[in-house]
Amino acid sequence: MADEHGPRSSWTFLTQHARVLLMVSRDPEVRVRDLAAACGVTERAVQAILTDLESAGYVTRTRHGRRNHYQVTRHTYFRHPAENHHEIAGLLALFADLDPVSTSDDPAPGGNDEHDGHP
User: Fold this and answer.
1) Are strands 67-72 and 59-64 parallel, antiparallel or unpaired?
2) Does residue 29 contact residue 67 with C-beta atoms inside 8 Å?
């Protein structure tokens, strides 16, 4: 039997792809090293995730000197058929405030607490 105070398994609601996407949306110049540390995966795994996100059109990457700058394409839709009629902007807005040290230039849209993200 699992510890009464600990998790019964290691699953989570968000995938590593979602975590990387959220972190990139908060800090477009975040380093792969920092993404890996925050997500608990290797730098190689983060690079693969960023490649997936870029290939699918969720992220664009441009080089600024020695650093990458990422831009999230907020009006793209989820991939799974159960959610593919929802834009990822709703997910980004939902989790926008989770990183208190963020200096993102992309504030949550509207700032209206009563908005539930549905038209």
Assistant:
1) antiparallel
2) yes
Q: How far apart are CA 96 and CA 106, in angstroms?
A: 9
Instruction: Tally helices (H) and strands (E) across the chain.
Output: 4, 2
- CA 19, CA 62: separation in Å to the nearest integer? 20
Statement: the pTM of the whole predicted model exceeds 0.90: no
Q: Over the chain (119 residues), what is each successive 10-residue block's mean pLDDT?
A: 65 93 95 95 98 97 94 95 95 77 41 40
As given in the structure block, the two tokens for residue 49 are 């995730």
Sign of CA dihedral 73, 91, 18, 106: positive
Q: Please give the Cα distance from 89 to 84 (Å, whole number).
A: 12
The two tokens of residue 41 are 């995966």
